[in-house]
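[job 0412] stage=fold_complex status=start
inputs:
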Amino acid sequence: MGVVAYLDPGSGSLIAATAAAGLAGVGVAAKAMWSKQASRFRKADPEDAVEENGEAAEADEHVRDHD
Amino acid sequence: MVDTADGTEPSSFRDPSGSVFYKDGRVFRALDERGAADWKRLASTRFFADMVADGRLIGTRDAPLEVAGGLPVGAGELTAVVEHDRIPFISYPYEWTFGMLRSAAILQLEVLLAALDEGMTTKDGYAYNIQFRGDAPVFIDIGSFEAADAGGPWVGYRQFCQTMLYPLMVESYLGIPFQRILRGHLEGIDSSDMRRLVGGSRMLRKGVLRHVVIHDLLASKVETSSQDTRKELASEGAGTDIARATASKLLDLVRSLTSPRAESVWAEYRTTCSYSDEDTEAKTRFVASVVADVKPSLLFDLGCNDGSFSRLGAQDAEQVVSVDFDALAVDNFFRDLRQSPGPGNILPLVLDLTDPSPARGWRGRERTAFFDRGRPDLVLALAVVHHLSIGANIPLAEVVDFLASTGEQLLVEFVEPHDPMAKILLSNKPAGTHDDYRTDIFEKVLHERCEVVASESLPGESRRLYHAVPRS
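[job 0412] stage=fold_complex status=done
writing structure:
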């Protein structure tokens, strides 16, 4: 790809920048956020058994209360 | 021109691909392999040639590798060196007026759009990418350009919001002067603070919902690595269209922002101050002859107000830096310079003489203190002594000592205590507070500190001018 940014643009800001592009951008941003990998974007709920490999959606159904 | 010692520029260390350094009073940038490739590509674009020609991009050209002579260049190996034109006097966004920050923000976006049209982009949206030459902004961070092959959103969006858009909005929508905020925090205003400032009451103002509220919501909710997010968005998105659309919308927004601050005490000064026509004439003649005599390479006008004496000095000085603590007066002067251009060598800035910009940033060296950026050959201190002494409660001897320390030569005006303007300031103080505010005391202190070359009492017999050379 050859693109290197030493600056951390912030993931949320990148999505916001995309959304700020207008309706088309909002579409792209929404698609990116709610795509198959969407669970990676959402903040982990401490009560869920979170798994890194994107199976968190299924894990939701097996929630247990952790004390 | 301002002198710089040989060596690396203290503020240029974050980009691993390149760093700025000085040698023999010239400015160079050392580039590693990646930086050199980006530069080569930039130099071949049409927009680079066009924007250097019209002064919006800093002039840059190849230089021999030997110039860098063993200087460290980030992580990579030294591959290329370029030379940049010098900026006559460095300034920072917290010293700019609303109009100046606005024009700098517009330039940042115009540069981005021009780059995107030719397959390049900028790595960041920091306000410090811009400097001013006279009243014209110039984009100086050549190292910021890179190929836009990957597409996707502009990575500089957050910094642009924090250091440029939000400060403009804070002044435009809330009437709060942004300089004090930017000076307090070099990274600018972050989105959560901004949301608290404008989220409620100003939600319907242009740009707030999109660039403040939604931006902050997303910034606080999303926690994946930015590089993953970037790839994700790039693969979904349509090349540079997204970045281009964002930049266009930001440009519209910034162009629409205006400062609502009503006239200040100073902006009305020119119409209400007590100078008679003969006094103004005599003062103009004295100032003009001293400046013509000294022919300063660098001239400071402290307390420039509407800038009329700066304009006078600009005719015989190489570079003029005009400062005043009243941001509105300086902004009026800036806009006046845009409309009736002088020789183009006047830089107006907002500065409080009792608390001038200090050294800031990493190791206290990243941003230079105002009075360390260049020693003026001549300093105009017209009608400031009484404001520092009476208004700001600084002992007269201190004021003289300070003014004498600012440059090689001094042209200072003393407003005598019986002058109407001095009387107004004195009337606000209890009797006995300013017993040192007397002409004989002023002259005694001035003679102790300097050799007085010439002096003149204005026709109205309530103001005196002195051309003085401080003793070292």
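[job 0412] summary: The CA atoms of residues 125 and 157 of chain B lie 6 Å apart.
[job 0412] exit 0
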